[in-house]
Amino acid sequence: MLAYFPIFFPFFALALLALSISKDLLLFFKPISKEHKKILADLFLYYQRLDAKKKVQFEKRVNRFIRLKHFIPRDFPIVSEEMKVLISAAAVQLTFGLHEIYLTHFNRILVYPDTYFSFINRQYHKGEVNPQHGVIVLSWKAFQEGYEPSASDRNLGLHEMAHALHLEDKIVFGKEGCCLDEKLLYEYQKLSKNVIQKIQTGEEHFFRKYAATNDEEFFAVSIECFFEKPEGFLENHPKLYHTLASILKQDPLEVYMSGTAA
Ligand SMILES: [Zn+2]
Question: CATH number of the domain that 190 lies in?
């Protein structure tokens, strides 16, 4: 029996590996649960406004995003299903116009109940993206505030997902990027230089001051405004708006205006 071990061991190892991969694949392709679908239908405006066909695509992407991530609670016992669905929905909202992108470099999502203290820079944070550790960190309170109906242009979930997408483009797809059009990104950066300067001199008021921190923060803050205040964005910065719509291959004004609200 022992004599056969070296022959059979690789076979069994391969069989076990195949079994575990197919189990993961099955989970990946499993349809969204009724519970998760209800959370989207009840709480996520962007999803509510999609037509029936796009709703199905959105559900599929949310479901797959959830299955690819480890949601880790910090300072509280468990990341609820509602948290998982809504955090995943923010990522899918941002990438919905693009090919299926699941921000695979970031496989862990840390959730704090509120702001958290960072021992690195000794400050309280609401969220961050750490490419070295493949982690997205979010304060649940701040995340929820971003999706409350209000006149605010803040949306922490979209802000951090925008950083993750920008980094994913460079890390996973290489120097030239792939999931985001390089030429359009360059064009966007060129247009934003002028706006950043105007924010710094106090001539520009549509974007909040934090957007002028650097190119990365401008990208993330402008994505918040793109989804939260699309009309104002288009009115104040039409060229910038259209370029961002081309980069993300979607126009929130079309989504918000054409659908039927729940
Ligand atoms: Zn940021």
Answer: 3.40.390.10
